[in-house]
Specification:
The structure is a single chain. The chain has four helices and three strands, in the order βααββαα. The chain is an alpha+beta fold. It folds into two domains: 39 residues, YefM-like fold, CATH 3.40.1620; 40 residues, no CATH class. A three-stranded mixed sheet has the order 1-2-3. The longest helix has 26 residues.
Length: 92
């Protein structure tokens, strides 16, 4: 079961932003910043942000591939493997 994210009021962030950043970096977990009792922003470590962006990019590629297959413009496995071999310099 995933843990609940830490919640920090914006006033606490203003008072000690460095401590909040250290906690985010150490825990690799997001921190939710609240303003007037409502979620207003999320702070992520750079590593967590980069992983999320990489995952979104992969999902975008998968969706595009599914759309190409549905439109009948996909490539056969043999074509893909031949291109991969060529790109890797493996003419065998």
């Amino acid at each position: 079961m995933p843990s609940l994210p830490e919640i920090v009021p914006v006033t606490d962030l203003r008072q000690d932003a460095a401590a909040v950043v250290k906690r985010v970096q150490a825990s690799h977990q997001p921190v939710v910043i609240t303003q007037r009792g409502r979620a207003a922003a999320v702070i992520l470590s750079v590593g967590a942000y980069e992983r999320g962006e990489h995952e979104r990019e992969l999902l975008h590629l998968l969706v595009r591939g599914e759309q190409e297959i549905a439109a009948g413009v996909g490539h056969s496995l043999d074509e893909v493997l031949a291109e991969a071999d060529w790109l890797l310099g493996d003419d065998a």
